[in-house]
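User: Could you check the structure of this?
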Amino acid sequence: MPRTVAPVPMAELILHFSDCQCPERHLWMHRDDDSYFVRVKAVVMTRDDSSGGWLVQEGGGLCRVGVCKVAPAGLSGHSDFLIHGERLKDKQVVLKCFVRKDLIYTKATPTFHHWRVDNRKCGLTFQSPADARAFDRGVRKALEDITDAGLASLCSSGFMKNSSSIHHADQTAQPVAIIRAARSDEPRTDLAFADNNLEIRKENF
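Assistant: Sure, the predicted structure tokens are below.
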């Protein structure tokens, strides 16, 4: 069965700021293994547009890199996904990049993958093809969850809009049923109802 990543308890969260996030956006990131779809060892790379090649990020070194779920502070029930890399030898965070639905992921070789998001290009040199495949699955799982969450939000918004329209129609519609007397010389009784509230009106000819 697919692994389910549960929301993170607030007591176990640590505040981080991502280079890829908007300046005003603060997110709480869980550092426990349970928040990760995948974690592998790899060397973090960055694109050098001037030379057209790839360079090691912040001095290089083997890192533990994973795709994890993060819960923004103050937004209950909402989650984002972050690619997070920490260098093993000194625990320095060298990669923080949010997964977005427009992320473009490329498997250049069996052990080198790279992606582009928000005009930033990042890459990973993996220890093995198996690690590369596992990381690719983790990124795709995050993208699927983002897509599913977007569809659910659209469906919910459409349902609420339709429900509001139906409720409004119920309030404005005022059907009237009239029961006429058998003879014209008898009193006429009119029955009128709106919103299931019955009102009786009696009129004489």
